[in-house]
Write a structure and sequence with these properties.
Layout: H1 16-27, H2 43-48, H3 52-66
């Protein structure tokens, strides 16, 4: 699979339809989200997960190192 990258300032503006679809998704309660096609994570996979703030800090450091 090829990696595609772009800069946010190079993206075309979102259409009204795209904005409406995103807004509808943002307002959808978690109970209405169908995750039945997503595989369950094993205990080993869950143990490897970082808390959100640690994951974001790791990502930020990697991005800064790449500049």
């Amino acid at each position: 699979m090829a990696i595609v990258s772009c800069r946010l300032d190079e993206l075309p503006p979102m259409t009204d339809e795209q904005i409406a679809r995103l807004q509808a998704l943002a307002e959808m309660p978690d109970s209405e989200i169908d995750c039945s096609d997503a595989p369950e994570m094993t205990d080993e996979e869950l143990a490897r997960m970082l808390p959100w703030d640690e994951a974001m800090e790791k990502w930020r450091k990697q991005r800064l190192a790449a500049v």
